[in-house]
Design goal:
binds hypoxanthine, 9 strands, about 25% strand, Rossmann fold, alpha/beta, about 270 residues, five-stranded mixed beta barrel
Length: about 270
Amino acid sequence: MSNLLEELSETTAFLREKGVEEVEFGLILGSGLGELADEIKGAVKISFSDVPHFPVSTVVGHAGQLVYGTLSGKKVLAMQGRFHYYEGHSMQTVTYPVRVMAALGAHSIVVTNAAGGVNESFEPGDLMLITDHINYTGDNPLIGENLEEFGPRFPDMSHAYDKEYGEMAHAAASRLGLHLQEGVYMGYSGPTYETPAEIRMSRTLGASAVGMSTVAEVIVAVHSGMRVLGISCITNLAAGMQSSLNHEEVVETTSRIKETFKTLVKETLKEI
Ligand code: HPA
């Protein structure tokens, strides 16, 4: 585990050398939402494959690079693409970039994802503010030795998603004249989509959306003392709520709403 400290210092030294200076916000851009990073000014781009101790992302539709620069007047380090548990990475590996963001000084993180809508009033193309999550992956990135330098052994998850950031996102949405849904995100391991029975269970348990990412990253962000803003792009109705599910629909929906998504995140960031 103390290896982690050494690895982090190698990674951050490398990124500093590449021109990554002050970082205020980490950004994790999910499936089809990576284009937001193209709007970062004075961008320094670093391929994941060049970053020491980063694994290689294998998912189609994920560009796989870090982009550092200024967005809405904030110093951001964005991930265009992320690492998923279903790729076979450990949760520690999936969340390593969040540790890196924290080590570079980020006080906040914006996590985004594509998700299936469980709430019956949602429609594909809706954006949802994540107000809380259910970690249904069966794993946790903090299992194992705890490094007190990073955070407490038993982190409090009562306020994982920052209430004030959520209010700012809603205010930004109403300024832009768009409806922002809100709800609980339930994280599954994937890579299968859920069964209709699992979706009925998710709804009974209080979930509004389901997906295969985010919960591990948010756990590590909270452990690191970061404030979290989470936004899901509802790309489809979850299993059993439409005839069948496929990745093409996820890609199509994200490309349809990515402009709105980008505008919402930029407008929210301006206010923070
Ligand atoms: N389930 C899980 N992950 C997803 C979905 C879904 O329906 N849509 C996009 N990501």
